[in-house]
Specification:
two-stranded antiparallel sheet
């Protein structure tokens, strides 16, 4: 397919998404006007609390239950290879390995349901669970947009407990909260700690950990966290309908991980926030990676860093984070540096207009040095919107692993506003450079031996949220590669997603 036809397909996809946005906007506008019954305004239909729902949420004394559903429709092109012809020939052809078609035209659906329970064992002790089941629909790739929705296949996958923990408040008669077991942990902005299971995408983000949260004062809190993650899903709790060994899902980047985190947070009454941390992460390539596929790393990584954030006045605010890493990785001395900063201006008007600029640095490995200078984002391997929606998580796949971003200078600008109470529109433009030319000779993707400009990332995100129970998002990412890439990896990439979430 030539470049002109490819651009036509991309434009058709963007127009189709824009039409859907318009339809949802009209529906949203209609839903803004509540009807009245018996003289009182009715709740939004997503928030109606019937006797059945009350019984579901509290079926018995001491038990609280919840349910949420996420539906996703995704289209993507050239997100891994930046090469229109990638997959035309073996070994990177269709799943069958015959090379009889092109697999750069991705179209899939994700359906995720989560059932949570909270058992109050006494006033200060809870037992928490959340069971997650996500299955996928795949549409066969095709050269024509008209047959976009023709052939489909489904992978019903498995159900996994992503929460399974017991929580003690006021432990040992101290201002201490202990959470033991499988749980979500997000520290700071999530730059380094958010997703303990990047190998399964956004299906889950849990950590198998022990977390102690101690309130040193009304404004200061100390987190002490021990983490033990395994690539193998069934190490602790075997999922339902678990796959065969060769086909099973991965939780990590094909490695087993141990970690310890010391995280001190102070929030002043003025809104200023200071964070100071030390993190240790031990990586070992998993048994699965050793037996079936290369991957994973062997490393002992120490990270010392801190973050400052808060308002400068009524309009300006900021966030600045810096982290230094040392240790060893795959037999080499590790010496790396990372930073992440953002400056925001709020107009404080009716439309909540806001502007921001940001700069992020993740050091790359110098190919002329015996040391390893590549910054490791630890448990931050998730599609961070600051870098451009979901697409940025895929672009680094052949430089390390999906979601594992590094070797980066990023300068970005963006704007967001609320055209109505239920809509938020955000647009971002990021310029990206590589810190080092360390991928020359990559057998899958073409990288330049001299250029360092990765390219332009354009992102648009429209969010409709009528209430806390319902949210819809429309996301479009478009990436134009720069001189860091070389033939044949010089084609633009597109990622488009519709995301609908209900909480019952």
């Amino acid at each position: 397919m030539n470049q002109e036809n490819m651009m036509k397909q991309n434009l058709k996809m963007i127009l189709a998404i824009c039409m859907v946005v318009g339809v949802f906007g009209a529906v949203a506008k209609a839903q803004e006007e509540p009807q009245e019954y018996a003289g009182a305004p009715a709740k939004h239909f997503h928030e109606i609390d019937t006797d059945f729902m009350k019984a579901f949420h509290n079926p018995m004394e001491g038990l609280t239950m919840g349910l949420d559903l996420r539906l996703r429709e995704v289209y993507a092109r050239d997100i891994f290879s930046l090469n229109d012809s990638f997959g035309d020939t073996p070994p990177y052809g269709p799943i069958t390995g015959t090379g009889s078609g092109n697999w750069n035209n991705y179209h899939w659906q994700r359906y995720r349901a989560r059932w949570s329970t909270k058992w109050a064992l006494n006033e200060d002790v809870d037992f928490n669970t959340r069971l997650t089941w996500e299955f996928w629909g795949h549409c066969a790739p095709d050269e024509s947009f008209s047959s976009f929705f023709n052939e489909k296949s489904y992978d019903f996958d498995e159900a996994i407990f992503e929460h399974f923990n017991i929580q003690f408040r006021n432990a040992f008669d101290m201002p201490l909260t202990l959470t033991v077991g499988r749980q979500d942990i997000i520290l700071g902005t999530g730059w380094l700690v958010l997703d303990g299971t990047p190998g399964d995408g956004s299906r889950t983000i849990f950590f198998d950990a022990i977390r102690a949260q101690y309130d040193l004062s009304e404004t200061t809190k100390l987190d002490l966290i021990y983490i033990q993650q395994y690539d193998d899903e069934e190490k602790y709790i075997k999922p339902f309908n678990h796959h065969a060994v060769q086909d099973r899902r991965h939780l990590t980047q094909k490695g087993d991980e141990r970690g310890f985190i010391f995280y001190l947070t102070n929030k002043a009454e003025s809104g200023q926030q200071q964070e100071l941390y030390y993190m240790y992460k031990n990586d070992e390539a998993s048994d699965w990676a050793a037996a079936y596929s290369p991957g994973g790393q062997n490393a002992d990584i120490h990270t010392i860093g801190g973050r400052l954030a808060g308002p400068l006045d009524d309009n300006w605010s900021y966030s600045a984070e810096l982290a230094k890493q040392f240790g060893d990785r795959n037999g080499n001395s590790l010496q790396a540096l990372g930073g992440n900063s953002k400056l925001m201006y709020a107009f404080n008007d009716d439309k909540k207009n806001e502007l921001h600029v940001g700069y992020e640095y993740l050091s790359g490995d110098d190919p002329d040095s015996s040391a390893d200078e590549q910054f490791d984002t630890l448990w931050g391997d998730w599609p961070q919107y600051q870098r451009g929606g979901d697409l940025q998580a895929y672009l680094w796949t052949f430089e390390g692993a999906t979601g594992e971003v590094s070797n980066l200078h990023r300068f970005g600008v963006g704007h967001s506003f609320k055209p109505s109470d239920v809509w938020t529109i955000a647009t971002d433009y990021n310029l990206m450079w590589a810190d080092e030319n360390s991928e020359t000779g990559n057998p899958i993707v073409g990288f330049s031996d001299s250029g360092k400009f990765r390219g332009h990332m354009l992102t648009g995100l429209a969010t409709y949220q009528c209430c806390k129970n319902f949210k819809t998002q429309f996301l479009v990412d478009y990436f134009i590669p720069g001189g860091y890439y070389d033939d044949p990896s010089t084609d633009d990439a597109l990622f488009a997603r519709i995301n609908v979430e209900w909480t019952f």
